[in-house]
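Complex 268.
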Amino acid sequence: MADEVPARPVVLTIAGLDPSGGAGIVADIKTIAAFGCFPSGAITSITFQNTTGVFGAEHQTASSLRSQIEPIMADMLVSGAKTGMLPTAELIREVVRVFSETELPAPVVDPVMVSTSGYDLIGAEAADLLKNDLLRLARIVTPNIPEAERLSGINIMNQSDMRVAAEVIKQLGPAAVLVKGGHRVSSSEDDAVDVLLNEHGEFIEFRDEYVDVGDVHGSGCTLSAAIASCLALDMSVEESVRQAKRYVTDRIRALRQSSRIGHGARPL
Ligand code: PLP
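Predicted structure with pyridoxal-5'-phosphate bound:
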């Protein structure tokens, strides 16, 4: 009899739908599968968008979100989780309830706020709840610079500001914080630097070649889904971030050789 192949760890993404496939839950599903995990997904909002912009959205209710998640949990052992676009206070309250009252693993929280094209993906009250109620449940939160500024109240001009912002955000309760510098905050124009403040209070710097292919679409979603997958595969937070970053950088690098999909920001 053939040996049974071990089951792939199930990773749940709670995120928005970008029907054009570049960001949100479709990007998450592609990523989770690429890491050898089994993707499951609950949709928080149906957005109307393509690579050129976001044109609107129809948000789900707390009850429709719960009705998506409960049957998954009743049937499967979920080993990893992430949250993406959580546009309303009602949805954030429900997500907080789900993560505090069930056996779901602590999520990777991607604090999605504004799209690359400038569309607001979260309301003001929801942003406050994300900061004050959801972050304390996170295994790791992954803000980019504008998100880290909004969560910490600190104006980030350099890498030392990134560290201070990470310390302030950690006070809100997540086990770890990854501030993504991208091209904006770097000692060298050729590098992209991210700063991890891990669960032991240590800073770890990740420095990569900055690959300039113009605006890219869905990189934050892809990174957080990759981290959630690596955590589900029992890697440490530091190793998960390392693997996830390598994956995103490789995907961006691959765009140099790929013909364009869409007319706007380039999907990974
Ligand atoms: N649409 C959805 C549903 C998202 O979750 C996100 C980001 O997380 C975006 C759009 C924005 O993606 P980007 O800023 O990479 O274009």
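Residues 79 and 92 are 21 Å apart (CA to CA).
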